[in-house]
Amino acid sequence: MTTLSAAAPAQPAASESILSPRYLAVTIGFVASILLTAFEAMAVGAAMPVAVAKLHGLPYYSLAFSAYLTTSLLGMVLSGQRSDRSGPRLPCLGGIALFGVGLLTAGTATTMAQFVLGRAIQGLGGGLVIVALYVLVGRAYPEHLRGKAFSAMATCWVLPGAVGPVIAGVLTEDLSWRWIFLGTAVLIVIPLVLLAGPLRDLPRVEAAERDEAENARLRRIRVAAGVTALGAGLLELGSQEINLVGLILAPIAIALLVPSVPRLLPAGTLRARRGLPTVILMRGLMAGSYFGIEAFLPLMLEQHRGMSVTFAGLSLVTATVGWAISSWAINQPAVATRLSKPARVRTGIAVCGLSLIGDIVAVSTATPLWTVALAMGFASLGAGMAFPTVSLLTLELSEPEEQGTNSASLQVADGITSTLAIALGGSIYHAMSTDGSSGGVYVLLYALYIGIAAVAWMLAPRVRRA
């Protein structure tokens, strides 16, 4: 049971948009936050090998990524609980500030241990922010404008995706890798200032008083989040190579994840119960499929087809552009009125999966390399249709006081399934290939990820409640 201390946003006129005066401040604020996050992700990914080498930490390279992942999962759960209880203001602004502290810690690192600590702080802040932004969209915009807000989020990745790696390369080669982290940290103040006002002015949703049983349940969820984060980190570490360490870490990670992950998801998620549980499960499967392909595509282009690092990276630019175009298109009346949300999800998954077959063709034949970028572009068109629609369904099927928890479940499913899919792919890669030059391993990997997409496609009709 909830009470509203202020009226929810009234239904605006048909001519209003997320850039209308009523919503302009919150739109500018979250767009600035996503732009900064996107640039950091693209630039840091390009500069990471140099940074780790300079710190003499190449044997611990994967820790720079797993540290971010593990703490972000914890941040997502904490943000969801706090947002449901008292609104997204504290987790959003606090998360942005923590993200900045992490950037400063990593950018000033003199040892690999300090660098990994910085990445862990970044991950905690990033996890807090992403869930809080989902709640912000749910509470700041009426239902028919939320799709356009998610479309704006997708568009924010286009420019950073195109110029982020280039800027990172110039700064790394001409100045220092540290400027990637320190320069981004300086810019943190922009989203902090821009979001402070809109977050303060959000309609408040007050949850009923919690009894001791509810407090105990929330504590168990927080513990499960910590165990899940640890398990995910161990799994990522164990999948780096097929050796004794990996063989020890992998079963420990699975033993941690099996009992903890279900506690972070809506009841019935793993059984694909109709409604929200299927929405969450389907999002995880979609993420595992799409980001699994995306993780191994540059490796295939470089090691199997002999492309340079620059051209391999540019092949992913088509993905950001395709995603943005598609997420914009599904909010146009010609599409929105003809395709229901479940139909949009199923169509998007089908387009994505069928397009990825093009990558299998590129691996097994002498197909021109531009067809790989074309196939990835079409796959991202499908992903850009499916992913934002699943986000909309999550908010639509959630009570206002549950938007934080359910948005956290969505992000946890996304992160955990991506980790599992990429870890499985990494194990297959190391087991079958020594140098990545054989095309057979990539055919198997892509077939695996397309199969995961097929399972998500079959679940799409179950996103509506019975």
UniProtKB/TrEMBL annotation:
How does this protein lie in the membrane? Multi-pass membrane protein
Query: What's the domain of life for this entry?
Result: Bacteria
What GO molecular functions are on record for this protein?
Answer: transmembrane transporter activity
GO CC term, one of those recorded? plasma membrane
Transmembrane intervals: 23-48, 60-78, 90-110, 116-137, 149-171, 177-199, 220-238, 244-265, 277-297, 309-331, 343-363, 441-460
Task: Tell me the keywords, alphabetical order.
Answer: Membrane, Transmembrane, Transmembrane helix
The cellular location(s) given in this protein's UniProt record come to: Cell membrane
Report domain Major facilitator superfamily (MFS) profile positions.
26-464
Specify the protein name: MFS transporter
Protein source organism: Actinospica acidithermotolerans
